[in-house]
Amino acid sequence: MNENTEPIPKRIEFTPIGYVENDYLEPGYNEEIYEKVSKIVIKKDLEDGLYRVEELEKLYILFYFSKSEGYKLIHRRRYDGEMSGVFASRSPYRPNGIGLTIVELLKVEGNVLYVKGLDAIDGTPVLDIKPYVKELEEKAERSKE
């Protein structure tokens, strides 16, 4: 750490902004989940934060793996069977249990988002939603080349 950096806090707390509703009740790898529609129900007092979200085609959804317990630093990846470190995988068994998925936004009804491609189970707490803007993502990728 340099001299201007504050020490890392021992604990960080988040309050969910909403939760997931879908037909997936147990954790597990299932390709079908990417084709299914899920609802993201946002707390009513945060509904104004969805203003103009319907203008977006895709969203980043950050969520908490509330049913995952423990983690291994090295394990077999679900999607290709190869061994890797937890930070080189999409495993729900992570030191901080944070999930990130890009979803297709289908429609918005009040405080409910209908999305396709969310790999989270029913009842999963949603921590944040951010816009996926293709042009910005591509610009960031080009600047790395």
UniProtKB/TrEMBL annotation:
What Pfam families does this protein's entry cite?
A: TrmO_N
* Record domain TsaA-like: where: 14-141
Q: Which InterPro entries match?
A: TrmO-like_N (IPR023370), UPF0066_cons_site (IPR023368), YaeB-like (IPR040372), YaeB-like_sf (IPR036413), YaeB_N_sf (IPR036414)
Keywords from the UniProt entry: S-adenosyl-L-methionine
Q: SUPFAM superfamilies, per this entry?
A: YaeB-like
> What Gene3D superfamilies does its record include?
YaeB-like (2.40.30.70)
Stated family: Belongs to the tRNA methyltransferase O family.
Q: Would you tell me the protein name for this molecule?
A: TsaA-like domain-containing protein
Q: Which organism is it from?
A: Methanosarcina horonobensis HB-1 = JCM 15518
